[in-house]
Write the structure tokens for this entry.
Amino acid sequence: MSDRYGSMAKLVARWCGKQSTLTLAIGVIVLWVVSGPIFNFSDTWQLVINTGTTIVTFLMVFLIQNTQNRDTAAIQLKLDELIRATQGAHNALMDLEELEERQLDEFRRRYIRLAGQARQRLEQGEVDTDTPDA
């Protein structure tokens, strides 16, 4: 079921991102506006577009979230691979997004300290590049 949802979400996301889909949406709105005088701008006439846009918006929220989750996971995996493949890099930085806030704060403080030391070296005319400590 999950694989079908993912495949469908990718397909719909690609379709929604096309210019022809935007043109179709604009066409629907123009048709709705033009039909206003025919239906005397009735409450039902307004309800049609309100209901339609609400349903589309509701469904798009889930589609966007699925796409965002998939993209974020792929980026995190690519970053983890870069860390893993870089000599001297700290492998403990892989999969940081899964840590608790307290653990993230510990890493953040460490890198804030390293950044401060690098800025001090720059002020003294030294270079601010080095390799991670072993």
Q: What stands out?
A: The chain has two domains: 2-90, 99-134.
